[in-house]
Amino acid sequence: MKKIVLIVPDGVAVRNYLYSSFINELQAKGVEVILYHQISDLAIEEVKKVQPTLTEIKAISHFIEKPKARLLRESLAYARLKVNTKKLKNPTVMDFWNRNQKSLKQKVLYRLAEVLGTVFSWNYNLILKMEAKYDTEITKDAIFEKITKDIEQLNPDYILNLHQRAPISAPIIAVAKKKKIRTATVIFSWDNVPKARLISRYDTYLVWSEIMKSELSLLYPEIEKSSIQVVGTPQFEFYFEEKYSKSKEVFFSEFGLDSNKKTICFSANDLSSPYEANYLKDVCEAISKMDKEERPQLLFRRCPVDKSARFDRVLEKYKDIVFAVDPDWRTEKVNGESFVSIYPTLNDVSLLVNTVKHCDAVINLGSTMAHDFAVYNKPCLYLNYNPVNNSTFKVEMSYKFQHFRSMNTLIPVGWINSKDQIGELVKQVLSTPDEIGKDRILWMKNIAQYPLENSSKNIVNSIIKI
User: For the chain, which end, N or C, has fewer CB atoms within 10 Å of the first or last residue's CB respectively?
Assistant: First the structure.
């Protein structure tokens, strides 16, 4: 292989693949790397700080799916969600369907998609037939000719998509198939496979674990097992790189924390989890009631895409014990007013690494931060109660999601089953950390291929072999 195009459809893919050693590993094998992207100019400038040897970078033409293609794609997603629900025997799979449309046009589109998707779900062969129809529909769009010209100019031997659910990938992969260029996609996150958002079909699928491989094979039986490669994920590699680490004294002093105190990280979820501020308040209240000698401080890290003010009141009330270390993610306009891109800066990698390195434990509602802390063999407490009576959000449904079945019979986290348990569990997790979530490393090994620091090499070696 001489030349590879990396599809960068959004800013989320930037950290794992453009800030990690992945590109360096490719270049070390003599592969020329080209970015074909849909992120802002400022995001590209941030990438260049990390990858100064990248010289060929091309923006993807602005793309809005035509209504017919959009309807077909959403109908197929709904159909697969219904099929996945039955195959996995897990009704929470349907919760991944978006029911919160705001405009009348969107409401009509999604209701129609539900009707068509229900019909498609009755026969799996019909789903495959309609997916082929979607691929054909995409080639009729004007974007297809623009991308064809781009790919002819770039002339790659291989195309790798860095986020499998982005609609812009569909016409690119369609062009690749026409040109007989080999393709691959990563499955971006540990919960992505059941969500039915694998838009295109590829020659190779790069997954985190054997569990993910089994799920992909079960839910997409048309995909050959031999084309699914278990490689891990680069997102945990940063914890093994000293260049991102600071001393506890230096890092804590930047944000007003006391380096002599025990520290709990509270990591929040996005706006789809409506009561995060309530949970933070409960945790702060419980900690404030602890004896001063054993009272820890809280380091608060919000979800990078949550720019709301919902935590402000709690942070102000408990400012003596909770300190915010906000993620350094930027939001920029792309293609004028048509698309907003959010992306992490390189500085955020350091913020996250040092947060995990210097905190003693983490509390959250089912977050992947449990895995980040497991890298350093540190415990996690999962919140497992409803903070608001009679709310539409039910915490018990969250832990029935398919990706939590990877726990199996393991005990990888501690469980906060009521507000009243917070104080005592915080004391336990700080005094006897090895007794809380003792199976966290075993769970992590279910989630991602070990050694964690070798994933970029695994991905590159998998690609080079093909």
Answer: C
Class of domain 239-447: alpha beta
Among the listed residues 388, 387, 392, the one whose alpha carbon sits nearest the alpha carbon of residue 416: 387
The amino acid occupying position 89 is: K
Q: How far apart are CA 8 and CA 44, in angstroms?
A: 11
Decide: 365 and 399 in contact? Cβ < 8 Å: no
Q: Other CB atoms closer than 10 Å to residue 391's CB: what's the count? A: 12
Kind and range of the H or E run holding 299: strand 297-301
Tokens of 144: 């297809």
List, for residues 34-60, the tens digit of each pLDDT value: 999 999 899 999 999 999 999 899 999
405-409 long-range contacts (CB < 8 A, ≥24 apart) are 405/90, 406/190, 406/211, 406/443, 406/446, 406/447, 407/443, 407/446, 408/446
In this structure, what token pair is assigned to residue 96? 């991944």
Indicate the Cα dihedral angle 250, 252, 256, 262, nearest 10°: -140
Q: How far does the chain reach from its first CA to its final CA, in angstroms?
A: 9
- Read off the pLDDT of residues 226-258 as tens digits, 9 standing for 90 and up: 999 999 999 999 999 999 999 999 999 999 999
Is the pLDDT reported for residue 340 higher than 70?
no
pLDDT in tens, 189-232: 999 999 999 999 999 999 999 999 999 999 999 999 999 999 99
pTM: 0.95
Quick one: pLDDT at residue 465? 79
Distance between CA atoms of 177 and 219, rounded to whole angstroms? 23
Q: What percentage of the chain has pLDDT greater than the value 70?
A: 98
- Separation between Cα atoms, residue 343 and residue 329, nearest integer Å: 5
Distance from C-alpha of 135 to C-alpha of 324, rounded to nearest angstrom: 46
CA atoms within 13 A on the CB side of 347: 9
3-63+141-233+452-465 belongs to which homologous superfamily?
Glycogen Phosphorylase B; (3.40.50.2000)
